[in-house]
Amino acid sequence: MSGTGKSTALAELRKRGFEVVDTDEAGWTEWSDDEGGYVWREDRIAELLARTRERTLYVSGTVSNQVRFYPQFDAIVLLSAPAEVLLDRIEHRSTNDYGKSAEERRSILAHLGEVEPLLRRSCTHEVDASRPLDDVVAELIAIGR
Question: Is the pLDDT of residue 95 over 90?
Fold first, then answer.
């Protein structure tokens, strides 16, 4: 969900030596008319997940076809926070313009009501992302073990 701190948590995990992929970055998704939105490029995700690695990989993103890859993940984590926390973070962030307009904020709240419950049902762990970053990252590291 927008504003939960996914990018911030990934940056901290990267600083601590973990492998991270933010699929919101260019090259990981493509538009799908069939899905009515962006989806993971399945070839790239499959290749990423097939690699042998010595350290934990953290992958972030929310797209309709991610469920196809769930069997290949050791954990599916939902970062969640109350709407007021999300909207405040989005209002004050400078790294991403998404959520600044009234229409985008309405969309974020709609996703919170419609998409987050679906993600909650399919996740293996839920992390309260309204807590301090160090606490969130420590929990993600523990889950990754």
Answer: no
b/e per residue 19-55 (b: at least 16 CB within 10 A): ebbbbbeeebbeeeeeeeebbbbeeebeebeeeeeee
Cβ atoms 44, 27 nearer than 8 A:
yes
Mean pLDDT, the chain, rounded, equals 93
Nearest to 89 by CA among 51, 136, 125: 136
The residues that bridge with 80 in the sheet, in sequence order, are 128
Q: Is the pLDDT of residue 2 over 90?
A: no
Three-class secondary structure of residue 124 per DSSP: coil
Rounded to whole angstroms, how far apart are CA atoms 64 and 70?
12
What domains appear along the chain, each with residue ranges and CATH number?
Answer: 6-144 (3.40.50.300)
The answer to whether 108 and 99 are in contact (CB under 8 A) is yes
